[in-house]
Amino acid sequence: MDGKVVVITGAGSGIGRELAREAARRGARLALSDVDVDGLAETVRLVGAESSAEVHSDRLDVTEQAAVAEYASRVIEQFGVVHLVVNNAGIAFTGSVAQSGYKDIARVMDVDYWGVVHGTKEFLPHLIASGDGHLVNISSIFAILSVPTQNAYNAAKAAVQQFTESLRMEMLAGGHPVDVTCVHPGGIRTAVARSAGAAEGLDSATFATIFDSKFARTEASTAARVILDGVERRRARVLVGPDAYVIDAMVRLFPSGYQKATVAASRRFGVV
Ligand SMILES: NC(=O)c1ccc[n+]([C@@H]2O[C@H](COP(=O)([O-])OP(=O)(O)OC[C@H]3O[C@@H](n4cnc5c(N)ncnc54)[C@H](O)[C@@H]3O)[C@@H](O)[C@H]2O)c1
């Protein structure tokens, strides 16, 4: 990663922030962005305090295709090349299909799926031109395991997985010099649940408390190391955290049977 130009969206918090710190420690030059400019400034401060990495930071909303296109051009102007893009920005949302409005579901798809599509399409020509490109899309273990009340997030993250795996094969088939990695984190200690939305009438704080106390087991810094190790090993698929491995195995063994167990667990944890 030494000297490589690394682009990270959603770098103002959680996994994105720790990816920025870890990439800087490994010698990368950074293009960081987020909608949250205060969080982004804090990431830039942390990176500056522990490395001499070159860092450019910009406010960027990944749902805005024209803004992402303009941003990709700006990054090329600043650095001349891009080697690694991590489409990390994402949001969570809780609500059953019946409870969620169309707008709620569309918002999750806009950020979690279309944000990834924008970042992928706008940077892909530059990754190919670099001669040694790598694209990382952050999906979730919830692409593999569906959970009641996470239907929009499950759908968006499954879409990211399939989009990313298809692209990887296109790069292989076309002989393009771009590796592609899909990342499936399990529960990671970040602000994701505390920042999440919830359908009308639901209390998002309740779900955040359940997530933070019962499911967020892996530190974001560990997640960042696992992800960048996977990048360095050119892995197609990276699972993050022991829970991700257990869930992946459970769904393979019991592709429909897992659902009854998940409903029972959701009842026990007060999710449904
Ligand atoms: N934390 C987990 O347990 C977990 C598990 C699986 C997958 N993920 C995924 O990891 C990624 C990072 O999440 P995190 O856990 O670090 O959460 P986080 O909330 O700590 O960080 C997400 C960042 O994305 C930014 N963001 C949100 N909407 C944006 C937009 N429209 N444009 C640009 N930036 C935007 C937020 O401002 C925030 O800084 C997300 O894609 C999330 O879905 C997280």
Describe the structure concisely for a colleague:
The protein contains nine helices and eleven strands.
What does this structure look like?
One of its GO terms (cellular component) is membrane. It comes from Dietzia natronolimnaea. 52% of the residues lie in helices and 17% in strands. It is of the alpha/beta class and 272 residues long. It has a single domain (5-268), classed as 3-Layer(aba) Sandwich (Rossmann fold). The strands form 3 sheets. A 7-stranded parallel sheet has the order 3-2-1-4-6-7-11, with helices on both faces. A two-stranded parallel ribbon has the order 5-9. It has a two-stranded parallel sheet with strand order 8-10. Strand 2, helix 2 and strand 3 form a beta-alpha-beta unit. Helix 1 (14-25) packs parallel to helix 2, helix 1 crosses helix 7 (220-232) and helix 4 (102-130) runs parallel beside helix 5. The longest helix has 29 residues, at 102-130. The chain is globular, with a radius of gyration of 18 Å. The termini are far apart. The model has no long low-confidence stretch (mean pLDDT 97). Residues 9-10, 12-16, 34-36, 39, 60-63, 88-91, 111, 115, 138, 140, 185, 187-188, 190-192, 195, 216 line the site of nicotinamide-adenine-dinucleotide.
